[in-house]
């Protein structure tokens, strides 16, 4: 539903002094136990990175990438903005690869990146992964990036619809991410701006939960950016908050005229207050320099360092404690609930009786407890593949309480997304054997689709080698995308982006079929099980 209020009318370009008025926010969500998103908003640079890899690897990846790009906020705007953005993205990618070589425990980590770099009259855009950038102009919201996912490729090829993509089991399968290969191709483009434009950059924790129509309606209200950020995060939380939520809202405003007045110094201060949110804000250590910070990036670091830990706020009358008023520098943390004071029990006799009773129950119910464990199931890793276990994942001293119930050699761990690999290594709990089998069936389908993509890629490469040179010039080269669990360098040539007619990307050569991994007969049979492979 489009908001009836229109954006401010642009004024004559010759008389305008344009600037960005921005705000950023991040929330862990209601399911995740830590935040792997990172964001930075400054007078020149707006960037969001959604890390992945489990444990601490995801937050390390997103923090490293944002820390690498933040120097662009200090540089003097140049004419070759896309070169600066592309070089920074590749430098960040090389840094992630080097970190994995130094610490093998970080293997599998990666991150998306969507960033806008302001020159004063134009915006340069760099995009890798499935975080998104939107433009609201004249009341209409347009997505200006294209998701680098397996599901988006199926949509582009007409094999599934946009509606089917929102519920596809492999909708989170990334085909491109920083840290996934030695070279990752980024989408680069230049966008002309006008006063009244509103930009949104967000992770899929927002775009995957809140509909396009709701985003358009919320952004079209033209509330101040900070209020809009708060409203967007609340909408994602009401939708279940299944993932980390990070977003940046930036308005293009004329600081010379309009609501601020000509030469208003307050306008300049409003647009020059950098914000860092998410994992990158949490890992920044205090920086005591004793000097006033001279750059936006330095100011952001000092702002965070000077921020004292805030105590949980006391609930105001009529406030249900939903955390709507929390957040400093755009960070929307976990909800604070005041714990009830615990009374100390000093009755040692009662405590002793409870201990004796517990020991008696343990002795009497030992056998019954063991029988109970044999009716418990979970999903874990056996060697390099997936297996269903019966029992408990913990050991009781030297006694093992588990055994392999079903081994699935066809579901190789390395073919799954990195975060699922980490979940399996930590084991996935289920309520019954039937639920375990259903979950394994989903994993099998994901592996089948990964293999189907590899098989299709190899077949297209072989056809390309066999085709005459004249045919090759008439055909668009097939896409070649990075699959999870591989370390190969694969470059992709995109055919275009929706609603981005001024995109400016670079091409790359297709690898020969001999350079692509061959599938075994069993893997080809499994690939045929992918629901979209037969379409």
Automatic annotation (TrEMBL):
Keywords assigned: Coiled coil, Hydrolase, Manganese, Membrane, Metal-binding, Protein phosphatase, Transmembrane, Transmembrane helix
Region (Disordered): 300-338, 459-535
Cofactors demanded by this protein: Mn(2+)
Any GO molecular function: protein serine/threonine phosphatase activity
Amino acid composition bias (Low complexity), ranges on this chain: 466-487
Entry coiled-coil feature ranges: 426-453
Source domain of life: Bacteria
Name of the protein in its database record: Serine/threonine protein phosphatase PstP
């Amino acid at each position: 539903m489009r908001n009836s209020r229109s954006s401010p009318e642009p004024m004559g370009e010759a008389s305008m002094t344009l600037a960005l008025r921005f705000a950023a926010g991040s929330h862990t969500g209601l399911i995740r136990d830590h935040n792997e998103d990172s964001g930075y908003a400054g007078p020149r640079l707006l960037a969001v990175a959604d890390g992945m890899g489990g444990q601490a690897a995801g937050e390390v990846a997103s923090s490293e990438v944002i820390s690498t790009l933040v120097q662009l906020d200090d540089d003097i705007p140049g004419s070759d903005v896309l070169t600066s953005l592309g070089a920074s993205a590749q430098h960040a990618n090389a840094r992630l690869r080097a970190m994995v070589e130094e610490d093998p425990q970080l293997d599998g980590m990666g991150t998306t990146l969507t960033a806008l770099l302001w020159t004063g009259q134009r915006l340069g855009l760099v995009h890798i992964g499935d975080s998104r950038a939107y433009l609201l102009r004249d009341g209409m919201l347009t997505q200006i990036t294209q998701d680098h996912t397996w599901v988006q490729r199926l949509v582009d090829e007409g094999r599934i619809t946009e509606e089917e993509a929102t519920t596809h089991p492999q909708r989170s399968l990334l085909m491109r991410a920083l840290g996934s290969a030695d070279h990752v191709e980024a989408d680069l483009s230049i966008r002309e701006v006008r006063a009244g434009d509103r930009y949104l950059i967000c992770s899929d924790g927002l775009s995957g939960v809140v509909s396009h129509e709701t985003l358009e309606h919320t952004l079209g209200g033209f509330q101040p950016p900070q209020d809009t950020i708060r409203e967007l995060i609340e909408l994602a939380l009401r939708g279940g908050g299944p993932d980390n939520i990070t977003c940046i809202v930036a308005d293009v405003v004329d600081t010379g005229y309009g609501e601020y007045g000509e030469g208003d110094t307050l306008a300049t201060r409003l647009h020059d207050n950098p914000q860092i949110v998410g994992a990158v804000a949490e890992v920044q250590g205090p920086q005591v320099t004793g000097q006033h910070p001279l750059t936006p990036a330095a100011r952001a670091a000092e702002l965070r360092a000077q921020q004292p830990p805030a105590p949980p706020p006391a609930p105001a009358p009529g406030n249900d404690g939903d955390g709507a008023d929390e957040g400093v520098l755009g960070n929307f943390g976990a909800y604070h609930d005041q714990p009830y004071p615990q009374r100390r029990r000093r009755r040692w006799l009662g405590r002793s009786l409870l201990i004796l009773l517990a020991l008696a129950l343990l002795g009497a119910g030992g056998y019954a407890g063991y029988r109970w464990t044999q009716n418990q199931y979970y999903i874990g890793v056996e060697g390099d593949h997936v297996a269903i276990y019966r029992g408990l994942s913990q050991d009781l001293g030297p006694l093992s309480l588990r055994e392999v119930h079903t081994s699935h050699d066809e579901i190789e761990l390395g073919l799954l997304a990195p975060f699922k690999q980490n979940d399996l290594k930590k084991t996935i709990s289920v309520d019954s054997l039937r639920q375990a089998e259903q979950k394994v069936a989903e994993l099998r389908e994901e592996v089948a689709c990964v293999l189907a993509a590899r098989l299709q890629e190899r077949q297209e490469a072989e056809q390309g080698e066999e085709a005459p040179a004249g045919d090759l010039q008439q055909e668009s080269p097939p896409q070649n995308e990075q699959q999870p669990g591989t370390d190969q360098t694969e470059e992709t040539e995109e055919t275009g982006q929706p609603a981005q007619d001024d995109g400016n990307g670079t091409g790359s050569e297709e690898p020969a079929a001999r350079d692509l991994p061959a599938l075994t007969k069993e893997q080809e049979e499994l690939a045929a099980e992918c629901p979209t492979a037969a379409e």
